[in-house]
TrEMBL record:
Organism this protein belongs to: Hypoxylon rubiginosum
Domain of life: Eukaryota
UniProt name for this protein: NAD(P)-binding protein
Length: 244
């Protein structure tokens, strides 16, 4: 028997934007499932009544297990937020000529790009399963992919981040129509400017270009609402929100 409450699964939901969206949905009565690599931060999930799954979005089986267990417990899945991502402090430009170049770390691409793609692949399967197995009148499967303003503009100091986030914009646009036509899944992506999270320096709070967390939550809330549309790519800046 499917749960009467809507069910969300959020990657990178133990902190920052993912956590803020998780807390917002929990307040609205959603059953929230947080998938995160950080077990310690995961305990915060309990404080908002969410279920925590320790999983690395690079590890297919642990991610699939989180989706699978969520479906087994609730027999429905309504919203997936492919949000997990990192910034990489390493300098891509610093190769020394005195030694052979060591293998570069491409973890950022594995987490930010491949992790979101894998999450999307699983979301498609479990949304489809949910559609086939239940007759939910309010079933409106929605996937939101977290890109960044770096997915729309070029940031030369952070080329891997820029590449991953551009890739996600293109990926979300590519799948939006097939997902909608085959299974009614609404896919959109969001591209925020800098958002104030606990990782930011306190002095950043005074920066005029910081996007309030509430703004990002409101954008996600709009996308999962019945009129939220699909195939949208939203630039979310402190100066305003616009479809790109
Ligand atoms: N904060 C910003 O200014 C900003 C702006 C635009 C886009 N974004 C994007 O928003 C997303 C969230 O960013 P944030 O600022 O909230 O970051 P954050 O570091 O505060 O939170 C990210 C969460 O993802 C988790 N995570 C990291 N690697 C993971 C992995 N391999 N598997 C599972 N979970 C993992 C972390 O443990 C953490 O809980 C990222 O994709 C980021 O690129 C952030």
């Amino acid at each position: 028997m499917a749960s009467t409450s809507k069910v969300a699964l959020i990657t990178g939901g133990a902190a920052g934007i993912g956590y803020a969206v998780a807390a917002m949905l929990a307040t609205k009565g959603w059953l929230v499932n947080i998938v995160d690599i950080d077990q310690e931060k995961g305990v915060v999930a309990a404080s908002i009544g969410a279920t925590f799954y320790k999983a690395d979005v690079r590890d297919y089986h642990s991610l699939r297990n989180a989706f699978d267990d969520t479906m087994k417990r609730h027999s429905r899945l309504d919203f997936v937020f492919a949000n997990a991502g990192i910034t990489d402090p390493r300098n891509f430009y610093e190769a020394q000529t005195s030694t052979l170049p060591p293998e570069p770390s491409l973890a950022l691409l594995d987490i930010n790009l491949k992790g979101a793609v894998t999450c999307t692949y699983l979301a498609q399967y479990y949304f489809r399963l949910c559609k086939q197995g239940s007759q939910l009148a309010d079933f409106d499967p929605t996937l939101v992919i977290m890109s960044s303003i770096a997915g729309l503009e070029v940031y030369s100091p952070i080329p891997l981040y820029t590449a991953a986030k551009h890739g996600l914009v293109a990926f979300a646009r590519a799948i939006a129509t097939p997902f909608k036509e085959s299974d009614g899944i609404r896919v959109s992506c969001i591209c925020p400017g800098p958002v104030f999270t606990e990782k930011r320096k306190p002095s950043d709070a005074d920066r005029l270009d910081m996007v309030p967390m509430e703004t990002v939550c409101n954008v996600v809330s709009e996308l999962i609402s019945p009129g939220g549309g699909f195939g949208r790519c939203l630039r979310v800046l402190s100066t305003g929100i616009s479809d790109v």
